[in-house]
Request: fold
Amino acid sequence: MATATYARPLMRLLDKLERLPGIGPRSAERIAFHLLRASEENARQLAQAVLDVKEQLQFCKTCFNLSEAASCEICKDPSRDPTMLCVVEEPKDVLFIEKTGAYRGLYHVLLGAIAPLDGIGPEMLKTNELLSRVSDGVEREIILATDADKEGEATAAYIAKLLKIAPKARITRLASGIP
Reply:
């Protein structure tokens, strides 16, 4: 007795969707069938939006936030306070802080957090680039705004230890971290 399966194109789509974080087999199936019901134009627009993100976005050469140019808008903004540097895990954290309107300094995005169980060590983060930025002798406050989970706490502790080489820096840990 043969087992029923979906057609190959649908199976390929399901496989690709399931590789996305937080998407299991049931969610992948819901998304796939939604796309099947969508107009061809909507499907093309979705595919183009994915391609546009891959082709048109890059990481800022200074802070590693997402940008359409070599430098992001925050790094180019002369009204930002260069003596304040907020260290976050991901570009989404920059957006979260920016929405509060309370911070007017610069950022440094690590592009992750130390997570040994996931194979992510400190050498995979943008820590060397952070050290280069703070080694200029400028007196500054460095705010460690990594997530409040164990990976974020481990990352903040590691960075605080690294930043001991920057004697003019005052290191602050954002108590609540980023949700």
Summary: The mean pLDDT is 91. The longest strand covers residues 81-88. The longest helix spans residues 40-56.
